[in-house]
Amino acid sequence: MSRYKSEQTVYNPLKKKYVPLWKLDINTVTVTHFNSDTLTVESKTYSTEFIRYHLHFSDSKCPDRLRKLVNEGMIIQYLDDIELKVSEAISRQVELWKQTDSCYQKAVLSGDAEKMIGLENCFISMAKEAVFECMVYI
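The chain above was modelled as a monomer; its predicted structure follows.
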């Protein structure tokens, strides 16, 4: 059951009732839109952990913001923007560490793929911790 539904409704002749134009289900991390032109339901499910974390955090700390985004039909744009910005921030930080970390540089020079992958995974975890605090839990 979706907790966030737009106030605006449209008539769905297939269901023979009015349905919300937009819905957000934070448990399945899915946004649903009823397209009144084509009379179809369009949905987008997010798979990144940071979108899930952000939605659950927002639901507990600032549900009015989510409600407003759903009502205005801006929820997909908002989540897409967060997804892109968080992914880019994590990638930038990982690349910076790869360029400046002496252990990683030694692994590259020696061709030690296992060490490189291990360090890169460590960098990703460290970057997520820093980035999530600044960009996800807001």
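The first strand starts at residue 4 and ends at 5.
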